[in-house]
Amino acid sequence: MMHNDTLASARIRAVNFAYAHLAKPIYFRRDPERVHNDLLAAGSKLGSSGLGMRLASAVFDHQDGRLAQQVMGIRFRNPVGLSAGFDKNGTNASIMASVGFGFSEVGSVTRNPCAGNPGTRLKRLPEDRSIWVHLGLNNDGADAIHERLWRVVHRIPICISVAKTNSPETKDSDVGLADYLYTVKRFGDVADMFDLNISCPNAFGAKDFADPSLFEQLASGVMGLRPRQPILVKLSPDLDEGNMDRIVEIAADNGISGFICTNLTERHGEGSGGLSGKRVEAASNGTLSYISRRSREMGARFTLVGVGGIFSAEDAYRKIRIGASLVELITGMIYEGPGLIGAINLGLAKLLERDGFSSISQAVGADAR
Ligand SMILES: Cc1cc2nc3c(=O)[nH]c(=O)nc-3n(C[C@H](O)[C@H](O)[C@H](O)COP(=O)(O)O)c2cc1C
To answer: Is the CB of 130 inside a 6 Å radius of any atom of ligand 1?
Structure first.
């Protein structure tokens, strides 16, 4: 084990060094959305051949039996997932296992295709290790993405992030609700779990369903479909405690499985849009901690997923000790490169060892107060 870990550590350090000194200086001079699209095109190509996937695994992947766990009836080989918004159209669903992820989100998917918002929609904020996002739920729509994913054999659990179409029509709550329900039904034969996105800061009324009365309609509407998959709800880091309390109660009453904490923050001085990375980390951890405590006080057994500002194993471990069974990231991977996933898995195993835990599930909630 020790010898393998030393080799893996050297390999991952070399990959991260190459990203920092060769790839990143080129990427960070170019338009962020173009780079994002080029990376997706490369990932899709690699993921379309067995050789490409084996090659990517040999470079990036690192697994450790101590990181595997059963959560919500699903087996996760490690707790590190790709957060919603990187693979919006499911073109990279095959390659994410080779990059080392334990699960990945596709979407956010909406009922109808949507081009997203006009103008500049992504900006890097390198001093803050953050990204300003104003994409506006651009995606190919539920039918096209379903068709694509249905053909893919995925080796890790796939979570479909569901939002309502970014258009003035879905401001009508009946239309908005029908939009969510359509997508959940559409992916019933493909998804391993669902994420109801009620917290996108960048689209027409995309947070309407965070209002407790509408959230109740959404939760009971989705659970009324009797989905065989667990349903998670993605929260904003900007919610007040009163709203969170109501949402947690409604979720418990309706059999929702858990929460993803959190989406982008709108508390910033950049006008519209939301911020990721280190600019949302403290608020995300605060939300995670609050939801973890409230759930315990209510005796509800929610699964929590921590996301926002993970750039290292220590960042991921902090969320796990607060109460997250799973974690996710995007921004850290953009700043540090795809070697970050292996580095986090390697680092998590060492942190477990340091703290005397024999498996990741023992660390979940170790700091819960
Ligand atoms: C480019 C980009 C696009 C995103 N798109 C979505 C999205 O479609 N749906 C969603 O729920 N969250 C979206 N997010 C938010 C992320 O899933 C995540 O919650 C947030 O970025 C915090 O994690 P991070 O700091 O690791 O990036 C997006 C984030 C980024 C950076």
So the answer is: no
